[in-house]
Amino acid sequence: MKDISGGVCAPRGFKAGGVRCGIKESSQKRDLALIVSDRPCAAAGVFTTNRVQAASVVVSREHIAAGTLRAVIANSGNANACTGEEGLRAARRMAALAAEQLSAPGSAVPAGQVAVASTGVIGVPLPIGAIERGMGGLFAALKDSAEGHDAALEAIMTTDTRKKGGAVEAGIGGVPVRIGAMAKGSGMIHPNMATMLGFITTDADIEQGMLDAALRRAVRRSFNRLTIDGDSSTNDTVLVLANGEARNPRIEAGGEAYEAFASALESLCVRLARAMARDGEGASRLMTVTVRGAAGEDEAEALAKSVASSSLVKAACYGADANWGRVLCALGYAGVPFDPGAVSVRFASSAGTVLVCEKGGPAPFSEEDAARVLSQEEVEILADIEGGGPGAASVWGCDLTCDYVRINGDYRS
Amino acid sequence: MKDISGGVCAPRGFKAGGVRCGIKESSQKRDLALIVSDRPCAAAGVFTTNRVQAASVVVSREHIAAGTLRAVIANSGNANACTGEEGLRAARRMAALAAEQLSAPGSAVPAGQVAVASTGVIGVPLPIGAIERGMGGLFAALKDSAEGHDAALEAIMTTDTRKKGGAVEAGIGGVPVRIGAMAKGSGMIHPNMATMLGFITTDADIEQGMLDAALRRAVRRSFNRLTIDGDSSTNDTVLVLANGEARNPRIEAGGEAYEAFASALESLCVRLARAMARDGEGASRLMTVTVRGAAGEDEAEALAKSVASSSLVKAACYGADANWGRVLCALGYAGVPFDPGAVSVRFASSAGTVLVCEKGGPAPFSEEDAARVLSQEEVEILADIEGGGPGAASVWGCDLTCDYVRINGDYRS
């Protein structure tokens, strides 16, 4: 597997683009994005578990049920959530408008082959007129290059400060298969996702059920192990479209080819999840929490999430303060049985590793060393349960800073 | 029921005091507190549910098992948590030292009649020598007046900025019965408590089992409906001591007298819980979240806690931003079934009430009015589920400010 350029346009047969249609009234930023495949794709999706679901999520769930997509249309600046029947009509219209543009004489594309996604403020009617007026320009802006990927990615960003995308190529059955992805999200982010959107394209030829399985596994080990602020959004959506243009031997069952595809997909999703954590609202550091020695992987994940979600751990991380007691405290309320007396805690980064807690009690360490380790841009908190089980998992988060409060104290204005 | 002065010293037969023994090395603040009854008390306690439990919690649980206490000794500046066997020995020694001082020739007080509590930094050995040296002065400082209450209360405060205490008098069986209380806590606070300590005295004559039942009910509806930052501490302790000196007809079963006592206790605990929320680390506002129309009280509480715990709701509250979509979002991930389309949301304060969401969608409102309502020192978020069940509950929290981050970015130094 190797990294390649081009993002979602790296796989053959995909185009992308983004324009400003005027949803973000107060800015000149792009706000409408499109990703299109030349031909119908096997498609799979994972959506928010929030009981309050955006209209775009409701509509995309319906459309993806048949397993086939041609395009994804997405907007930023408005979540189209808590917008009632009018919101549902607007989301359906958004898909229909894109489908009309995709249709050629004699080959109509059904609206059901277009997924929709929205991100932005909740409870404000989606300005569907602006989207309608922008549609021609959006299709005219489509490109099959990194430029198209970049423009589409810009158009789905909200409080994001960095572009989060990538592409990889893996040999599958002797054929190079490409996977490209983009993601946005930096607030309202929590396990089981949040206002995060992730769009993944691939030219792999893969049966829809296997694609769905690979996506679920990848999301479970990437986006669902990400927490910024504990708020699971109404709009989370991760979609993958596979158009088969790589002409690899079709993946129809588990085995070597499936594993190669699934692990390439997972690795790309993990990269995006880490990038989202690093770009968490107001974040100054990426914080990886790794737990080893739990009863199983699920238990390790729950313990690591509890630490990564703790406001006190996050604030200490911001202050580069080796306050390991807060780590033990957060492990303790995770709702998972373990022996507190068997826990050791290490802080690690490019500046070294410091053991701060051994057998649940203080280990002698240099505060100076610990502060240096914790002052790096990427830090890791390692909790080992000695003599525990085989369960291990890493969760990604970020520190809690004043900028988070500033950003969210007045998001709407 | 009426408010009276004197705090934990208001009930007859109680003394309290606080001194500086030197645990808080870098400050001149009091750090050692004592509450003593003239005679043995029926006693009950509620403790943290964290799997990592401070040594003081372990020892107090043991001591309260017999249902009888004479005194509570507490320190701030050190949590005596994650301190291993040495910590347990120190906690036992702390109780034994107080018991020695209480003993008179011919009437030894067992160490098991003294509860201990600690609050402060985790993972640092408790300086038991300082406590030992301070013991004489501590007992010399005992007073049966508001002054004693105040000194003891000061000695358990950490990042608290306000004193949280009170006392009430209720007629029980025609006899005036008094209940006094103090509490500390402003960070690491979450439902099921946190670094919160609550000490309650009463001169009621009440059987231990009934006292225990009254305390659990009061805690469930007060301190357990409080969230500052989602971190449940290793040290939470609420204790009640009843010495019977009011000479009311002994409360030995449910009925009018029990209800009068239990509701006076609950009302005092609610007052302290609200005071703790108002004094949350860095808080500029008290935020009450009330949910009505849930299936039951537990469901209402879970929904309200989800909103009160949301970092995004808390940050919007700080910014006096009427971002009601975040309220719906937080209701949506509470894990409780409800119909999002039936929810209405109001913001209320001394400046008025504004309806911002109706039937799950936007209600027309004046941003100016909403900002004025949300700018007050105490604000309420009311979520009504129309046509829902009889469940209602209020949860207390506070806004999220930069000061929270500052306070916790470098707590230890």
Q: Care to describe what's here?
A:
The structure is a homodimer of 413-residue chains. Chain A is α+β, with helices and mostly antiparallel strands and 413 residues long. Chain A has two domains: 2-278, L-amino peptidase D-ALA esterase/amidase (4-Layer Sandwich), CATH 3.60.70.12; 286-409, Ubiquitin-like (UB roll). Helix content of chain A is 33%, strand content 27%. The first copy, chain A, contains eleven helices and 15 strands. Chain A has helices spanning 55-64, 84-102, 128-140, 146-156, 208-220, 256-278, 297-309, 311-318, 324-332, 367-374, 402-409, and strands at residues 2-4, 14-19, 32-47, 68-76, 114-119, 164-172, 175-184, 197-202, 237-242, 286-294, 343-349, 352-358, 361-362, 378-385, 391-398. In chain A, strands 1, 2, 3, 4, 5, 6, 7, 8 and 9 form a nine-stranded mixed β-sheet that branches. The first copy, chain A, has a six-stranded mixed β-sheet with strand order 13-12-11-14-10-15. In chain A, helix 7 (297-309) packs across helix 9 (324-332). The longest helix of chain A is centred in the middle third of the chain and has 23 residues, at 256-278. Chain A is globular. The first copy, chain A, starts with a strand and ends with a helix.
Detail the topology: elements first, then pairings.
2 copies of one chain form a homodimer.
Chain A: E1 2-4, E2 14-19, E3 32-47, H1 55-64, E4 68-76, H2 84-102, E5 114-119, H3 128-140, H4 146-156, E6 164-172, E7 175-184, E8 197-202, H5 208-220, E9 237-242, H6 256-278, E10 286-294, H7 297-309, H8 311-318, H9 324-332, E11 343-349, E12 352-358, E13 361-362, H10 367-374, E14 378-385, E15 391-398, H11 402-409
Parallel strand pairs in A: 4-5, 8-9, 10-14
Antiparallel strand pairs in A: 1-6, 2-3, 3-4, 3-9, 6-7, 7-8, 10-15, 11-12, 11-14, 12-13
Helix pairs in contact in A: 1-2, 2-3, 5-6, 7-9
